[in-house]
UniProtKB/TrEMBL annotation:
It comes from the Bacteria. Its cofactor is Mg(2+); Mn(2+); thiamine diphosphate. Pathway: Quinol/quinone metabolism; menaquinone biosynthesis; Quinol/quinone metabolism; 1,4-dihydroxy-2-naphthoate biosynthesis; 1,4-dihydroxy-2-naphthoate from chorismate: step 2/7. Its EC number is 2.2.1.9. HAMAP family: MenD. The gene is menD. It is an enzyme of class 2 (transferase). InterPro entries: MenaQ_synth_MenD, MenD_middle, THDP-binding, Thiamin_PyroP_enz_TPP-bd_dom. Keywords: Magnesium, Manganese, Menaquinone biosynthesis, Metal-binding, Thiamine pyrophosphate, Transferase. Gene3D superfamilies: 3.40.50.970, TPP-binding domain. Residues 10-114 form the Thiamine pyrophosphate enzyme N-terminal TPP-binding domain. Belongs to the TPP enzyme family. MenD subfamily. This is 2-succinyl-5-enolpyruvyl-6-hydroxy-3-cyclohexene-1-carboxylate synthase. GO terms for biological process: menaquinone biosynthetic process.
Amino acid sequence: MAFPKGIIELVDSLYQQGVNEAVICPGSRNAPLMIALTRHGGFKCYSIADERSAGFFGLGIALKTGRPVVICCTSGSAGLNFAPAVVEAFFQEVPLIVLTADRPKEWIGQWDGQTIYQENLFGKHAKAFFDFETDDCSAAPLTAMAEPKGPVQINVPISEPFYPEPGFILENSSAIFQNETLAKHKAQSTKNKVDFAYFNQAIASAEKILVTVGQMEHNSIFETLSAYGIPVIGDATSNCGSTIGHDLLLADESMWPVLQPDLHIHFGKSFVSKRIKQFLRTHKPKQSWLIHPNPIGRPDPFLCLTHVVNTDSNSFMEGAEWSSKTWNSWNSAKIDSKQTEFFANPSWTELHLYNQVTEAIEQKEAEVHIANSLAVRYINWTLAKFIKTEVYSNRGTSGIDGCLSTAVGAAQKTDKLCISIIGDVAFQYDRNALWNHYIPANLRIIVFNNGGGGIFRNLDGAKDLPELDEFMETRQGFTAENTAKDAGINYFSASNPSELDLNAFLHNQGPALLEIHTNSIENAAELRKYMALFKA
């Protein structure tokens, strides 16, 4: 057979621009793409059967490498199953190249099998759409890497036949595939020129500066600015090392006027905490700045934005002239003693167990992937903090789908322990994350099993609904044991303190899963008691 025209060149163009990893989902229509990727020689290829899991697996790799990862599927509904990961990548600003094989255009809308409308399949949630037959697809990697980074789709209509005969060798493959020169990606510079005169004057004249840090990679913003007496607050996903328990401080709303800043500066992306958003929406600063090289639109979750400073956080920190401030209303000493006393009397409830787990992990060389819903909130409330441990979480769309798959993908790209902390519903929803041959020895999974969606017992309004048990909390009796065994992962279980051995679990030789069983009613009661300590 004649190999479909242009596919070899497309794949090599991606490679020459620094793309060298591909997650491939099995199928017929995408067979030529699969063959070109796997026989190229320059790509690390992974085969993942479930497209939804595959998309998040690729997302996890891209999070760690910072480079675009190909995710490739056959035609029809397969591409739609990439959608949750594509949307997450869009809002989390992670580069992906989505290769969707398609039927020839003359068969679209003709009731042909596995045929849907694939042009602009992801709508506004892809940075760009490329039609393989009409567009210059070589621009895809640079588009994915330009700030804000994100996913792009290349739709590739392929006609039959698309299976090569045995022994078929791709034309000119040796000349292309043996090229050792890898053209490094030249992503659009994020160090845009900024006239700092205005901003430095505002910093100098502001008496009360508050810096918030949203989801980011590890950074030293807290360490740098706290030396000047400037309060820096961030969720665990900010990775800034802040020890200020802002969510607990803000539980006492009578303190909000005292905590109101003159100048608010925000780095990074989204916040988990709802209270900080409510606080700044009602107690607006005179000025509020977003530091971002090129944000999508004009995001203003605090409803007080006055300036967008188009540069990256490092460039801003270097260019800004900081001066010492004496405003210390955000000192968290008033809550530290209450936390210390509370956690000195542990119980077998999730809040205490998250505190214990955080303490144990922080002593290791590890990174953690926190699932959405209640898990990502618990780590903001505990006394123990992740400081040296880098925290990841799918907070682009904050869905529970793909949390585990993202961790499994990221685990491919680190020698540290890669630990997924996840609730039972999120685990069961994404257990196909373990349905592959790429479960590395450094993977650890901690499943908090309270028999359902425990977060709803803590939400005002929801916790009192008669439909809570059946239609919101979705009570279930499944465990992770059989899934772990099917995946060849060592299984640990704990239902009381005597059964919990975090040291043995973390030091297990090979991948391991720990399931911690608790009672959702007791969890909710303990959390209410804890939060009541900090209210007026």
